[in-house]
Structures are given as C-alpha cells and as structure tokens.
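Troubleshooting entry. The earlier prediction with adenosine-5'-triphosphate gave an output that would not parse, so I re-checked the input for stray whitespace and re-submitted. Clean input:
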Amino acid sequence: MDENILFQTINVSKSFGPVRALNNVDFSLQRGEIRGLIGENGSGKSTLAMIIAGIVLKDGGKMLKEGKEYNPKQIQDAFKNKIAIVTQESGLIEDLSIANNLLLGREKDFTVNGFIKVKEINEAANQMIYKILKDKKFKVEEKILNYSFEDKKLIEIIKALYQNPEILILDETADAFSRDNKNLLWDVIRKVKNEGVSIIYISHTISEVVEVTDTITIMRDGEIIDNIDSNNRTEDDLKKMMVGRELKSNYYREDNQATFNKEKVVLKVENLSSKDAFHDISFSLHEGEILCLGGLSGCGMSQLGKAIFGLLKTDTGTIYLPEKNKYLKNHSPVESINQGIAYLPRDRDSEGVMLLASVKDNITLVSLDRIKRKSSFISPKDEVTFAEKGVKELSIKTANINQFCIGLSGGNRQKVSLVKWLMRECEILILDCPTRGVDVGIKAYIYQKLHQLKLQKKSIILISEELTELIGMGDRILIMKEGNLCQKIFIRDERPREEEIINYMI
Ligand SMILES: Nc1ncnc2c1ncn2[C@@H]1O[C@H](COP(=O)(O)OP(=O)(O)OP(=O)(O)O)[C@@H](O)[C@H]1O
C-alpha cells in the first residue's frame, strides 16, 4: 500500500430511493494534500463528503483510513477518526450561545460538582476563536442565531479545527464567503496543510479551486470521471471536463455600456438607516438597470436588501416607488410582492426555500395569485404545469415536482429559491448572491437570464461578494463599507477594474 495514502473509498455506492447518487466511487487522498472536488449540481459531491464524515451511510463498498477499515455509523465515529466536516447546511444549534456551540459535547470538561462553569466555557471559546481569527469580534455568550450566515460558517470552521482533524472537509464553505473571509480561510487551509492535514475542498468557483488546491477530482452523475493535478490547468479546461461541453470563458454580458433608462427611476432609497446594519443610504434604481452592490463581510449590503423588501426594520429614511407614487414604510414582504418586488435571500436553507415542502409548493407559493383562475379556484393541474415549467427553466434535478426540497442537492435548492421569483415576473428583483452554489453551466444561464430581464426593462439589485460578477453584470456598481455607502459609483462605460473596486472595499 502507498504509505502516503491516508484515506480511500473503494466501490462506494449510495442511492436515495430511485436516485443513484454515487456509483462505485473509488477515491483516495494523500496526507497533507488539498483536494478539490468539483462537478455539476447533483453530481454526488456532498453525498461522498457526508459518507466520509459519517453523516450519510453508504449502501455498498468500503472505506479505509490508514489502511484500516473505516465504517462510521454517525458523525461522532468520524470525529474519533479525526475527520471533520463543515457541511453546506448550518451545523450549529441556533438557540445556543457561540460558546456552547463550539464546545458542544465537551461540557464535562467544564463541570465541577454537577455545575457547568459558564465563565470557563466562555473563556475557552474566546481562546478558540482568537487562535484562528485573531481580532475578529464575536460575543461568545450571545446566541448564534443573531449572527450572519458567514459568521456562523466561521464558527463552524473553528469548531472543526478544534478537533485537530487529519482530514478536513469543506463543502462549499468558501463559496459562502466575502473576499476577506475567503482569504482568511485560504490562509488557514494552507497552514493546516503544512501541518499534514488533508483537505477536501468542494466548490463551484472553479478559478479558486485551481488556485487553492493541489489536485482536483471531477464528478459527474455519481461517478468520478477524472483526477488531475491542479498545476497548469485553466478554468476553461475544468469547466469543459465538468459539464462535458465547451463553455465560454467569459459568461457575463458582453456589452460595455450602461444601458438603462436614466430618465425613469423605479426605486428611490433616501437616507435609509437601520441600527447596527447600515446608515444613511441613498441611491436610485432605474428601469432596465442592473445595479450591483458589493462589499466585504458585514458591510451591510445583505441587510440593505432585506430592509428594502420589508424583512428588516429601518429607523429613518424612505423607500419610494416613483412609478406608483408609493412609499414603503414599515412594510411587510407581502406588500413588497404586491408592489412587484422579488427578493432572493442569501441564506438559502433557512430563508430561501421551505425544506420540508415539495418543489412544486416552493415554486408556486409566491405566484398562487397568478395561477388562480377568475373564480378564485386554484387548479391543481395549473399548479403542476407552472411548477414543471420552473423545473425545466433552470434544469432542476429532482425525482419529480413532489419531492421535498430537503432531498435536493444544495445547488438545486438554490435553483428552486431563484426560479420561483423568475416565474413571478416581478418588475424589481433584489437578488442576494443568486449564483451561490450553482454549477458553471447554470451560472452562465442565470447571467443570460438576468441580461434578458434587463432588456425587458426589469430592474435588478444584484448583491454579490464576487467582484467578477459585479463587473461582469452591473450597469453601475455601488460599494458598501461598514454600513456606509461609498461616494464613488462605478459605471460600466468606464470599465471598472477589480483592484480599483477593492480599494474602496477595504
Ligand atoms: N437526502 C436525500 N434524499 C433524496 N435524494 C438526495 C438526498 N441527498 C442527495 N440526494 C440526491 O442525490 C444526488 C446527489 O446529490 P449531492 O447533494 O451529493 O450533489 P452535489 O454534487 O453535492 O450537488 P450541489 O453541487 O448542488 O451541492 C442528487 O440527485 C440529489 O437530489
């Protein structure tokens, strides 16, 4: 046996009902290796990762760690074997404090005479955080639910590293991060690699996979189709291997002009503030405009999107729809929908989809008034037709429209979350990271679709942490920093460059 091989799967298979998620997968990992794992949505990456981490049980085949049979029945078995995972979904308990989440299961170490020493748990948690994040501020006694999705992922990484893993699996963790946290994560990965830890790095951001990893495994339809060296590989090579056809290297819109209707403002935000989130924000969105909002983690851009849609309370300022002569004040999301506004949240699983409802119910929910016939009667047949159209529109991989969303792969859940708004045909779309977790083929399609919507005079606020996306799609780009909007507005005609934009972010 190769001494360097730390871990192997041999002929591992897994089916979920009729869906064959993994088909005789042979995978091996060396010590101190960073392995990228890429493939289209639903190709089996997370299933493989979760089998290795003891979260999902395999149907057949075997796994070896250091040459010995490894057959985890639960995640604790993986911990004991020094395998840790940060899953796509949240792995934390929302109602517990950060400290309790970090030290869950280790309370015994802090118990004296039956009493848990809260102060000591908090102190230990602070030290764990400091070791990785240095000066990043977390109040360890606060409930984790008060923190952003990105912050929660940071806490999960710290928790995973605390187990001193020999194998660390990151399932689309970096894809959820803004630039500053991505850099932080990559520094951590390189550091632990040098200490001999092997990393399985799942991502849809191919350029980053090439940059960060040593080797890459490509999956398609539950099988490994190739294992390659990351050196000397281009993003285009990999995209082609992944989807099995050539994809243009630049899949953003091709025009270089800001081409919206400058005379027609459809949404005017003036001096809008929300305590602790953003301050004194003013901007206008025009008919047919893609207005991009970018910034580092915690800059307030996601909260701004939420507030416009009516999901976050504002303290001062106004949101005005000039075309309708309507002010939105203390408004609910229902009011926003009625005014033709759509909102795709960043946190897919807790806000974007109803996991325990069917694909059909998820897609039709915000459009029932449109599906309804004049008699107020909703025809089940019309609902089915509507949902099936949505599934086709974004090639959602699902057994059928009655499948619950919890059984879909992460990227396919994201497609459900987005397509329900595309199907409603709103005038204004606020989209927070719409392409997060979707594969390159669908990404290209979504960009085309956004461009089409723009040409149909729809207006889009595109919130994104990906600079290339901001530059590639925006008519204008606004940057937020620490809750404030920068004065500088980047205009498409001037061909803004990444370095220039970063200067305003940091
Ligand atoms: N709990 C489940 N119940 C039913 N089907 C499932 C379940 N988990 C995964 N699947 C199916 O298994 C297949 C592989 O899914 P998996 O999540 O492994 O894909 P993935 O490559 O990680 O996709 P993504 O890039 O979208 O995250 C998909 O068709 C998915 O619908």
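This one parsed fine. The pocket of adenosine-5'-triphosphate is lined by residues 16, 19, 21, 39, 41-47, 397, 407-412 (CB under 6 Å).
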